[in-house]
Amino acid sequence: MAKPNIDASKLTITLIQTPKELKDQSTLKFGDYFTDHMLCIKYTEENGWEAPEIKPYGPLAIDPAAYALNYSVQAFEGTKAYRAADGTINLFRPQKNLERLASSSQRIMLPEFDQEQFLECIKELIKVDQRFVPHGHGYSMYVRPNFIGTEPNLNLAYSREALLYVYLSPVGPYFPRTVRLYANATEARAWPGGVGNYKLGGNYAPALRPAKDVNNRGYDQILWLLGDDHYVTEVGTMNFFIFWVNADGEKELVTAPLDGIILPGVTRDSLLELARRWGEFKVSERKITMPEVITAIEEGRLLEAFGAGTACIVCSVSEVFYQGKDHVIPVDPTDPDAVYGPLTKRLRAELLDAQYAVTPSSWNVPL
Ligand SMILES: *Cc1c(COP(=O)(O)O)cnc(C)c1O
């Protein structure tokens, strides 16, 4: 008989005894404040998925020898719930995140799970803690699913026990400013045959030291280059886009292809779709190299460059250090104080309007 999968109808809810006081919304930053409850769903190979539980937010009891702690058997996701002006709450394309979580976790031999039932449980968690979902444009509830191998076993086989859990963090508006990049061709975030296209915790720890190094040199983020031709992959933990007049003289929005190196961002996918719907210029997913980017800067053909991800939506790039030199990227030639270029700003506005349900969008999933 098939082992039980996640079943939202079996969800139990244990409410916290002393609910937290709500933090003053204007003091919200990113990722250091959590709500009252969390969702936990346990799995064992023997019995399948247990009944989902919503319970007070708090420490997990994990065996010190758990796979997650020894061998980084951990996959995660990040998505957001947005409160519309009328008070209703929507998740933005959460199915994309759950598909990606399934793909990431299967790469590290974690068990399959029913994505729809899991989404129903996540919605319930947000409902339970909905007083924490902030009001107003720019504010949102960050949703962090985590999937870990919990079997205590030092043998490198696979974890026969697992925990899928979700917690919530109300977040404030991202302070808009442009970023300066340091193009790094020495260290690699991901490589052919590697796991750069999966959101695995193990991909992020090794990036901490290179990131700190560039911060110490006065740069905000790493532009990750790969291989001898200096293929431009991603920026920090964001997908990277350029808008330029390409070598053939065409206006083109370009980002790296889903070739197994880059993380398939939901923001990336959404921006590509918006730009394709407009149909005003060429939109490409293809490999570009740093020498091509530098030539475009020198010839005045690079119009805008930006990073894209759930945390900031889009973030304009104003400068990039490459081979001993800072190269200035124009943000908006008509406005020296602009923090977004014209196209970047338009993409950002259109995406935010969808997320806050200012314009109706089939991407929104109501609670
Ligand atoms: C999460 C992440 C992104 C952005 O993905 P979104 O789904 O748009 O938030 C891009 N690159 C890396 C390396 C990431 O971890």
TrEMBL record:
Keywords: Aminotransferase, Transferase. Its EC number is 2.6.1.42. This is Branched-chain-amino-acid transaminase bat2. It comes from Coemansia furcata.
